[in-house]
Design goal:
Length: about 350
């Protein structure tokens, strides 16, 4: 494997401990001046959000039955008893948040992800596809060759699960990877709700010049992060850095994320598996519009190896071509962007 940085995302119950095991076995290291990173990420993907029930201290009725829960969070509400029976026993959100918290405390560089919203996803049903070849690289709990049912996860339920994970990431000041399909407006609204009341002050040009003069005279800071105080991290209800992964929104949706008042740093990631097709140039227009320090590249593949390396090389070459970069400049810029996303300002130095 040629790729020097792996960001491994958990998506469901079966993945969380597997990601932790890989982090323990392989870990990140800087040896003889060569950087190799394995960054674990823990969280629940929207495809599995229906397996979680929202438990609140204010609710005194106790947990819902399995049937009550799935009829509440799936639309249309399922009536087939065999289908409901085939679904996993729902887990309380509080317990899953504690599990994520434990992993984040154990791994100081871990991220929260993959989390998000998906209005297109349908829950796998009971019937199997006519032809299905099992992929040994997939962990248990996936679709596993089943046909899709008509049932989708209620968006409001997805938002509650997403918001809780965003709040935890903000509390622990970890970056997040966000999935968004057929839900770009709702994703933005959900993210913006977490930083409401914490927006950055947008100064006029005159005020910026005045402050710059004062800082020059008194040696004041040039631009302290809103989540830093005396060098210590301060909890916030929003994550400090957000990656919108395999971003499929239109170019005109970028403006809302790049407003100076947004207190989080937003990155936009692209993959060949999701973003590029012969029938659409949308990704080209978006990449042209993304500031160069906010671009990320990814494979969006579930397994490491030669195929992942080839996908990474392909998307990096494509981004360089679109941005008019040399390959050397593009590789360095994208690597620096990834480090800023993962580590913030505390980028590790080579030995």
């Amino acid at each position: 494997m040629k790729t020097r940085a792996l960001t491994i995302m958990a998506t469901r119950n079966q993945d969380q401990d597997i990601v932790a095991e890989f982090a323990d076995r392989l870990g990140s290291r800087i040896e003889q001046g060569e950087e190799r990173y394995l960054i674990p990420a823990f969280g629940w993907h929207p495809w599995f959000s229906h397996q979680i029930y929202y438990d609140s201290p204010s609710e005194i009725c106790g947990p819902p039955t399995k049937e009550e829960h799935y009829k509440r969070v799936l639309t249309p509400a399922p009536e087939n008893a065999d289908f409901i029976c085939s679904l996993p026993e729902p887990k309380p959100l509080s317990g899953l948040l504690q599990q994520i918290r434990n992993h984040l405390e154990r791994y100081p560089i871990a991220l929260v992800g993959e989390i998000g919203l998906d209005r297109a996803f349908r829950v796998p049903g009971l019937q199997m596809l006519d032809e299905y070849e099992e992929d040994p690289a997939l962990t248990s709990g996936s679709r596993a060759g089943r046909r899709l049912s008509p049932h989708r996860v209620v968006v409001e339920h997805q938002q509650r699960i997403l918001t809780a994970q965003l709040n935890l990431a903000g509390e622990m000041q970890r970056a997040v990877s966000v999935h968004g399909v057929a839900a770009h407006g709702i994703v933005y609204d959900t993210l913006a709700q977490t930083w409401r009341g914490h927006e950055r002050s947008v100064l006029s040009k005159r005020e910026r010049r005045r402050r710059a003069s004062v800082n020059a005279v008194h040696g004041g800071p040039g631009g302290e992060s809103p989540a830093m105080s005396s060098g210590l991290l301060v909890s916030r209800p929003y994550p400090p850095r957000i990656c919108l992964h395999s971003y499929s929104g239109a170019a005109d949706t970028l403006r809302q994320y790049l407003q100076p008042s947004v207190p989080a740093t937003i990155f936009f990631s692209f993959s060949h598996l999701v973003n590029f097709s012969p029938s659409s140039n949308k990704a080209v227009d978006v990449i042209k519009a993304v500031p160069e320090d906010k671009l990320l590249a990814e494979s969006d593949l579930h397994a490491a190896g030669d195929k992942m390396d080839n996908l990474m090389e392909e998307v990096i070459r494509t981004i360089c071509q679109i941005k008019g970069w040399s390959l050397e400049h593009g590789v360095k810029q994208l690597a620096l962007n990834w480090k800023r996303f993962v580590f913030g300002e505390a980028i590790p130095r080579k030995a």
